[in-house]
Amino acid sequence: MARKRTVAAAQLGPIALSESRASVVARLCALLAEARARGATFVVFPELALTTFFPRYVFEDEAELDRFYEGSLPGPDAAPLFEAAREAGIGFYLGFAERVEEAGRIRRFNTAITVDAAGRVIGRYRKVHLPGHAEPQPGRAFQHLEKRYFEPGNLGFPVFEGLGGKMGMLICNDRRWPEAYRVMGLQDVELVCLGYNTPLDHADHEEINVLSGFHNALSMQAGAYQNATWVIGAAKGGREEGSLMLAESCIIAPSGQIVAQATTMEDELVCATIDLDMGRPYKETFFDFARHREPEAYRLIVERKGPGPMLGAKSASEA
Ligand code: CDT
Fold first, then answer.
1. If we measure between CA atoms, which residue out of 182, 184, 261, 254 comes closest to residue 216?
2. Within 13 Å and on the Cβ side, how many CA atoms surround 257?
3. For a FRET experiment, which of 55, 57, 248, 254 has its CA 20 to 30 Å from that of 5?
4. Which portions of the chain are predicted below pLDDT 70?
5. How deeply is 274 buried, as exposed, middle or buried, from its count of CB atoms within 10 A (0-12, 13-18, 19+)?
6. How far is Cα 288 from Cα 311, in angstroms, rounded to an integer?
7. How many CA atoms lie within 13 A of 303 on its CB side?
8. Complete domains list, the chain, with CATH
């Protein structure tokens, strides 16, 4: 029997540096209300969905930086979203900057949580692949200082039960890394949720900027198909404080096909009815991992971080 669910990517347009949390949360609630009207039971909001994309700025003063982070959610600002979702019986994925005391020190992560329809946090993920730099780069109009403001996630890629299926999460840059999807594929994931902020400002690499939309779809479609899972990608897009960011939020089937996509760079709800069983035929044929994978041949993936000697390099006596 099909396991059909109506789900949504809740794309956000720009969030101004001066915009209050209350105003942002009101926008999230409006998207949630639309999701309810369209029959959705699960909504994916973007990465760092409560503030502007602050890693574009250099902050020397820690107190100034701290205002972009949340402690435990729901705090007072986000409470109306949690309440509205619980009242509507809608679950959601939400990205935010997390500041916690752990292991006896303050730690900062780029985090996403999944909340079920009853308002319980059922999954937590901390972004593993942090892009950009730890130090400001001279001459850049916009910095990308995720390595300065966050540490790499320490929770791995957990898959958990939700929506009557198996769910996992990624955050933005993670979507470009096949290992991230595969670790979840090996837990039989059926739905991967991810939010993103993708600035189109590689100043010296216009060729990368112009292909941003292609690479966004390419990486999510490949991750979906090669692991026979649904993927929902929700952007914060548009021109935010001068920095142009990709929109193109979409919902991708286990076949790799895009079934719904945003057409604006503003707040927009992208909805689709998905069948969580759709990945099954792929998991029983091409991607029957237990039958076809050869982990011994993949050793370098966990042994090496970057490129090293060629396995086919001939010794001097063979050459
Ligand atoms: N937020 C985030 O991870 N953005 C990256 C672009 C980084 S460019 C230095 C992305 O993969 O979209």
1. 261
2. 6
3. 248
4. 1, 316, 319
5. buried
6. 28
7. 8
8. 4-303 (3.60.110.10)
Q: Is 293 in the pocket of ligand 1 (CB under 6 A)?
A: no
Ligand 1 contact, 11 CB (< 6 A): no
The reply to whether ligand 1 has any atom less than 6 angstroms from the CB of 80 is no
Spatial separation of the C-alpha atoms in residues 115 and 93, rounded to whole Å: 6
Closest CA to 232 of 283, 180, 190: 190
The angle, 0 to 180 degrees and rounded to 10, between the axes of the packed helices 178-185 and 212-227 is 20
Of 47, 247, 245, 237, the C-alpha closest to 142 is: 245
Q: What is the pLDDT of residue 201?
A: 85
Tens of pLDDT, residue by residue over 119-133, are: 999 999 999 999 999
Index of the ligand 1 atom closest to the CA of residue 198: 12
CA pair distance 88, 141, nearest whole angstrom? 42
Compute the distance between CA of residue 194 and CA of residue 60 in angstroms, rounded to an integer: 30
**Residue 238 phi, psi dihedral angles, 5° rounding:** 90, -175
Alpha carbons 42 and 290: distance in angstroms, whole number: 31
Which ligand 1 atom sits nearest the alpha carbon of residue 129? 3
Cis-peptide into 295, omega within 30 deg: no
CA–CA separation, 108 vs 123, rounded Å?
A: 18
Give the pair of three-digit tokens for residue 289.
């991992």
pLDDT on residue 202: 79
SS3 content of the chain, % helix, strand, coil (to 5): 30, 30, 45
Query: Which sequence positions are flagged as catalytic?
Result: 47, 127, 172
Q: Is the beta carbon of 69 within 6 A of some atom in ligand 1?
A: no
pLDDT of residue 319: 63
